[in-house]
Amino acid sequence: MYDILIIGGGPAGLTAAIYAGRAEKSALVIEKDAFGGQITHSPRVENIPGFVSLSGNEFAEKLVDQAIAQGTEFESGEVSELRHDAESGVFTAVTEFGEFEGKAVILATGAKHRELGLPREHEIEGVSYCAVCDGAFYKGMEVGVVGGGNSALQEAVLLSGLCKKVTIFQDLPVLTGEKKLQEELAAKDNVEVICGVHVEELLGDSELTGVVIRKTESGETAEVPLQGLFVAIGLLPQNEPFTDYIALNEYGYADSDESCVTKTPGVFAAGDCRSKRIRQVTTAAADGAVSALKAIDFLEGR
After folding, report:
1. Where are the alpha helices (H) located in the chain, listed in sequence order?
2. What is the dihedral of CA 108, 121, 80, 75, to 10 degrees?
3. Cα–Cα distance for residue pair 294/289, rounded to 1 Å
4. Other beta carbons within 10 Å of 215
5. Which residues are catalytic?
6. How many Cβ atoms sit within 10 Å of the Cβ of residue 172?
7. pLDDT digits over 172-191, tens only?
8. Nearest to 286 by CA among 14, 58, 82
């Protein structure tokens, strides 16, 4: 029996664990992928207070070490179901490796990469959702990046240092990422930006040889030869197993405000899975702190 079950081991979940430990509450963090969350895919992070620059992996390791120092326990696994015994007030998280009980729950499940939804997207070799993971395989090749926000531009910056050419495909008329990233890419000779187009088709048999793009306004199509395609078009919240306990907005995010409180007493939502305008590592950490303090109040009857 733990005081707090924390489902998700990204910056929100790990910050919540640190705060729980400092309040002498026992906490278990359950994570289905890598502890540290999406930030582990970032090769360089420069917007975390106290660090001029470090990799996402380095930051994740520091968070995990700090949580361990506060007594946090960890389990790898995917929570497929959350149960609640109304009489005892105990919550049970069900995973493929066992069941874990707690008096309060913090949902910090984050979000996964949004896909293009094209035929053979998972079968054809050459489509990736992580330049940090797969960029080295395309050294000296021509690749594309789908998306125009911060994530897409960060991927393009990384790939520009590895690949012969990087083409960015954005469906909107302009890029929407930070001006600094846009300026950095504009200064590179091997980066091309094509706005106002949709990627319509993946070319090639077993391996990607290019894509078909369609202009939004005219409908005109063209083939662009590529050996790799990196998709960075947003995230999907991971809230499906918990819909009995939290209200969702129209996009599937937990419908909770800055208090991180949900419709179910004892259940809190933090980080990228929660409805919010700005999703950054600092705002996720802030949610982790707030949700933990709210959970502590709940446990202590305040």
Report:
1. 11-22, 56-69, 131-134, 150-160, 179-186, 281-299
2. -60
3. 9
4. 14
5. 130, 133-134
6. 13
7. 999 999 999 999 999 999 99
8. 14
Asked if pLDDT for residue 134 goes beyond 90, the answer is no
Tens-place pLDDT, residues 234-259: 888 999 999 999 999 998 999 999 99
Closest by CA to 7, choosing from 173, 169, 239, 201, is 239
Task: Give start and end residues of each alpha helix (H) in 24-130.
Answer: 56-69
Contact 183, 101 (CB under 8 A): no
Considering only CA atoms, which of 9, 47, 12, 31 is closest in space to residue 271?
12
Q: What pLDDT was estimated at residue 254?
A: 96
pLDDT in tens, 76-102: 999 999 999 999 999 999 999 999 999
Kindly provide the residue ranges of all beta strands, DSSP E only, lying in the chain, ordered along the sequence: 2-7, 27-31, 73-76, 79-84, 91-95, 98-107, 111-113, 127-128, 142-146, 165-170, 191-195, 197-203, 210-215, 221-225, 228-231, 235-237, 267-269
Q: Specify the pTM.
A: 0.76
Q: In sequence order, which residues have a C-beta less than 8 Å from that of residue 170 and are 6 or more positions away? A: 147, 148, 152, 176, 193, 194, 195, 196, 197
Query: Domains in the chain, start-ordered, CATH in brackets?
Result: 2-113+235-299 (3.50.50.60), 127-231 (3.50.50.60)
For 67-80, the three-class secondary structure string (H helix, E strand, C coil) is: HHHCCCEEEECCEE
pLDDT tens per residue across span 29-48: 999 988 998 888 777 788 89
